[in-house]
Write a structure and sequence with these properties.
98 residues, three-stranded antiparallel beta sheet, 2 helices, 3 strands, binds zinc ion
Length: 98
C-alpha cells in the first residue's frame, strides 16, 4: 500500500478538470490515474494500541504511588492517560491478564 495526500490529489484533479474544461478537452479516467500515480508518497506511522499494566509501587516524597507500565514500550508513569507519553501509543486496548 502506498499512502498519498487526498487533499493534494483532489486539488490536482480539480485543476486539471478546469484546465480541460477551458481548453475544451475531455477529462478522462486516465488523467485521474496519472494524477494519482504522480502524487508523492506520504510517510505515516500506523497507530499503535496498548494498555496500562499495573507495575510496582514507587516512592515519591514520603508516599508509595502505583506505577503504570505501557504495554507497548514498557515505559512507566504514575499518571495513566489516553496516550503513552513515551511512545505515543493510544491506550484503548483491552487489558489482558498479565
Ligand atoms: Zn509506550
Amino acid at each position: 500500500m502506498r499512502l498519498i495526500d487526498e487533499e493534494l490529489v483532489m486539488e490536482k484533479v480539480n485543476e486539471c478538470f478546469d484546465t480541460c474544461d477551458q481548453l475544451d478537452l475531455h477529462f478522462t479516467a486516465q488523467d485521474v490515474i496519472d494524477i494519482i500515480k504522480s502524487a508523492p508518497t506520504v510517510e505515516a506511522e500506523p497507530t499503535r494500541h496498548g494498555h496500562w499494566i499495573n507495575g510496582s509501587f514507587i516512592i515519591i516524597g514520603s508516599q508509595l504511588v502505583p506505577e503504570k507500565i505501557c504495554s507497548v514500550c514498557g515505559a512507566g508513569t504514575i499518571e495513566a492517560s489516553d496516550f503513552c507519553g513515551a511512545c505515543g501509543a493510544k491506550m484503548d486496548e483491552e487489558a489482558k491478564d498479565e
